[in-house]
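Example A, followed by Example B.
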Amino acid sequence: MIGRGTVVKSIAGHDKNRFYLVLAREGDFALIADGAVRKLSAPKKKRLKHLRQTLTVIDPGTVLTDKALKAALRPFNTTETIDQEGGGILGKE
């Protein structure tokens, strides 16, 4: 189950194949951020059916800044990972 602190992969939309951290859940939606494109101050609201959870959980209390969040997600959001699926935002880390 996708919950607060879960690292998720977007499987639909212009951000397809990018990884995010779930900051909160609101019914069938999750508020997600990655520290780069989507900042902690302005998370994206995305339907749960458009997200796939990973086995990684990060305590949201440990990533208090966009820089820390971006660093925590860096192993997931590499150029090779994004380009491999043929979508997402190329050249962004």
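Example B, a separate protein, is given below in the same form.
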Amino acid sequence: MRRHGPLGVRWRFTGFGLSAVALAASIDASAQEQNASAADIALARSLGAEGVQLAEDGNCAAAINRLQRAEALYHAPTIMEPLGECQVALGKVVAGTENLQRVAREPLPARPPRAFVEAQARARKALEWALPKIARLKIHLDMPAGVRPTVKVDGELIPLAALDADRPVDPGVHKVEASAAGYRTASRDITLGESASATASLKLDTDPHAPPPAVENSGASPAAGSGMMLGTNTGSSHVGAEPSGSSKTLAYAALSLGGAGLLVGSVAGVVAISKKSALDDQCMQPRACPPGAQGDIDTMKLAATVSTVGFAVGALGAGGGLVLLLTAKRDPTAGGAAPPHGSIRPFASLAAAGFEGSF
């Protein structure tokens, strides 16, 4: 039986409706290559028959569901061809023509089933009418260099390689959107007729309420902005080497701390010595001081403790600072002699503090 299909092309649905023998023969011809199970083939045959019948009745919306499920289970031109025609009939021209072209270009076996040959002929005929319906949409996006945007058409993600190129789309209304971190979302609705071409131009404007976007910098070193220095000298590499400037900074900080400790220790030592001298005049015998001298005794002890701690901190800070200065790493690119080697030892007492060693 011949009927007019969704495109006005005369169809002859023989793939599933001619006879069970013809249908089985056409499926068995390609089942060997697809290695499909008997259950999948039987289910695909059932779903495909329902889809073809729905298409013959003009219900392409329901037919597409059955035909897509049948095609997922088992591929056959007798399933794909009516699926492509129904997609075109419902406005899905790009998807429909792609399916029709797959059928039209598909190599058939040496002795193909008649149903497959007829499906291929119908696909070629349908393409003559359907291909000119495809519209073209060019998307142009103004944005700062290095920004990686997200572009969508009708909610579908579009590859960035498709920008500024005529992209096949279905006729009708389309929503184009572009977004990126740190920028306001730009969108535009555009309507295209059959065979029409248009350009959707969008611009990404900075969002003042968003953090700055991440911008690609292909020329920057991977270690740029970090505390790691990567050496590139031939035959050697310095990974994680601390610059000499940092060592000197730490050395100066340690020397400052040492100087402050020595100053505090010295002042506290003077106070302790002064209090001890006063107590020697009051206490004629050991452990025989007048009751009123207890305050001076406490002050002397506290000052002596502070002095000891101050000298210790000062000695360690000053000694550490000198060590850092003397052993600071030189810039590997700078000339000059190697840093001197030596050893120092801090010493401290209530009377004096300093360093001794050899260089």
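On Example B: Confidence is low (pLDDT under 50) at residues 1-25, 220-243, 331-339.
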